[in-house]
Design a protein that fits this description.
Distance between the termini: 16 Å
Strand order of the largest sheet: 5-4-1-11-12-13
Helix content: 25-40%
Structural class: alpha/beta
Strand content: 15-25%
CATH architecture of the largest domain: 3-Layer(aba) Sandwich
Radius of gyration: 21 Å
Protein name: Haloacid dehalogenase-like hydrolase domain-containing protein 2
CATH superfamily of the largest domain: HAD superfamily/HAD-like
Number of domains: 2
Organism: Moesziomyces aphidis
Oligomer: single chain
CATH topology of the largest domain: Rossmann fold
Largest sheet: 6 strands, parallel
CATH class of the largest domain: Alpha Beta
GO molecular function: phosphatase activity
Length: 318
């Protein structure tokens, strides 16, 4: 009988570290987990997850180095962010997106030259109303809008362009996709809003802006693709990058570990059948294990205590 195989999705901030300080025993526990992984490389795959939508993975890695998580513990390919999920989604669906993302976040889309050529990289110093003919045509041909945390692009001009794309004012051949890198709970709208009020927005929250764009373009919240955890798009893209092309999520035991019962272990995790582990660090508050739409499957005092239990009971059962 084949031994069980595991995909581990481990939250970073609040679980592995809080600010620039590692949680109790986290660095040493990850060292132990890596040592076991080297002995059983086909059984354990690990991704460290973050919902950051303002900075690239390289910026995030710099912070992890300060925490004490060196490259031997968390390499560049081991980190998966909401930006990575959005990038994978755009690449897989061969979309041509308008990127309303920070300059740091946009670097996630510049690594693949072919994909970068199909992206429109918005910039605070660029006026969409004063583009040359070639760039204006490229902007109007976008078939997706990717929205992240970027206050400098939350201006009436760029938000107007996003709305026009989403509302189909540029005669798109198919409905333009709305993708957000920010996790959040969106209220469902039954119909379109008659007055989009896009130029008068006072909030730069991706949640609020996404909600208003949904209403103004007459789409339901369920039609927006949210690429932050714990949404299915994030989890599916993360696991897809961990397994082979001929494998599926159901071939593995998929475990997510986090400190937030909603933001880490929320609806998408149990919809997709992940094993949900809550740790009592970071955002954890007393009683959280019994809150939320579904209670946590397991609860531990820290990431370190869960890792030790996982090694002893899942990888090396007696």
């Amino acid at each position: 009988m084949r031994s069980a195989r595991f995909n581990l999705l481990i939250d970073l901030n609040g679980t592995c570290h809080i600010g620039d300080t590692p949680t109790l025993g986290a660095v040493q526990a990850i060292q132990r987990l890596r040592a076991v992984q080297q002995q059983q490389p086909d059984r354990v795959k690990i991704r460290f997850c973050s919902n950051t939508s303002k900075e690239s993975s390289s910026s995030l890695l710099s912070r992890l180095r300060r925490v004490g998580l060196g490259v031997e513990l968390v390499g560049s390919s081991d980190v998966f962010t909401s930006l990575d999920a959005a990038y994978r989604l755009v690449a897989r669906q061969k979309l041509r997106p308008l990127l309303l993302l920070s300059q740091s976040a946009q670097t996630a889309f510049r690594g693949d030259d072919a994909l970068a050529r199909d992206c429109f990289f918005a910039h605070a110093d660029l006026d969409p109303e004063r583009l040359d003919a070639q760039n204006a045509a490229k902007l109007r041909s976008c078939d997706a809008v990717v929205l992240g945390l970027c206050p400098e692009l939350m201006t009436s001009k760029w938000l107007d362009e996003a709305f026009r794309l989403l509302a189909g004012e540029y005669d798109a051949k198919q409905r333009v996709a709305l993708i957000t890198t920010h996790r959040g709970t969106f209220k469902s709208m039954s119909g379109a809003c008659n007055d989009p009020v896009i130029p008068s927005l006072t909030s730069s929250s991706p949640d609020d802006l996404c909600f208003r764009h949904q209403a103004a373009s007459g789409r339901r919240a369920s039609e927006t693709i949210v690429c932050g955890k714990p949404q299915p798009a994030f989890l599916q893209e993360c696991v897809a990058g961990m397994i082979g092309v001929d494998e599926s999520m159901s071939d593995f035991t998929n475990i997510i570990v986090g400190d937030d019962i909603v933001a880490d272990l929320g609806q998408g995790t149990w919809q997709l059948g992940l094993r949900r582990v809550l740790v009592r660090t970071g955002k954890y508050r007393n009683g959280d294990e019994s809150r939320g739409d579904r209670f946590a499957d397991e609860t531990y005092d820290s990431l370190a205590s869960w890792i030790d239990h996982f090694i002893a009971n899942d990888l090396n059962p007696k």
